[in-house]
Amino acid sequence: MRYASDHKARTREQLLQTAAREIRAKGPEGVAVVGIMGQVGLTHGGFYAHFKSKDALIEAALEEMFRAAKERSAPIVGDGDPRVALRTYLDFYLSPAHRDARDRGCPLPALSGDFARGDTAGRERFSTGIETLFERIETALGMLGIAEPSIEAASMLSEMVGAVALSRATADGGRSDMILADVRKALGRRYGLDSDDN
Asked: What digits encode the pLDDT tens for the residues 139-190?
């Protein structure tokens, strides 16, 4: 059987998307190559036409996750008003929709615990993703004239990630929504993101 010229690229993309969902759901250690291949309708043997190893798949899937996260955060350091861009990003990040998108959202709330536990495959790539988000927030805060933007960026990102993680872990739906709303309000006040006269 002959395949279209882009068949291999499309199959690789399908494997990456499936692996990204599985990694978010089960952590990198819980992912099985056989299971991922089965979900896309391929045999285990076909895996090596796309990736050298499971670790290579995890690295590539993390790259894909952070590519999407970088796209979402790109306006923070764009040409627009950094205050509006940060406010928009906070509105997205600290929303019930993002909380509920465990299989598609930012990898930080879903996977930080997994990568904190040891020398897991992809840890260096995960760290690079964290740094990219820190730097973007730091740049925007610096543009707003916030003192010590590096320290403030660490605080802001940590609160955002923690709020999403805690809201996902909370059984009470009302409390879960409140965590997101309260942190969004606190960050907006702290950095002057909600003031129309700024």
From this structure: 999 999 999 999 999 999 999 999 999 999 999 999 999 999 999 999 999 9
CA distance 17 to 23: 10
32 Cβ partners below 8 Å, 6+ apart? none
Amino acid at 100: D
How far is it, in rounded angstroms, from Cα 58 to Cα 46? Answer: 17
Return d(Cα 115, Cα 92) in angstroms, integer: 24
CATH architecture of 7-190: Orthogonal Bundle (1.10)
**pTM for this prediction:** 0.85
Q: Residue length, the chain?
A: 198
CB 69 within 8 A of CB 129: yes
Where helices occur in the chain by DSSP H, the ranges are 7-26, 33-39, 54-73, 82-93, 96-100, 107-116, 123-143, 149-169, 173-190
| Cα radius of gyration (the chain) | 19
d(CA 187, CA 139): 16
d(CA 82, CA 75): 8
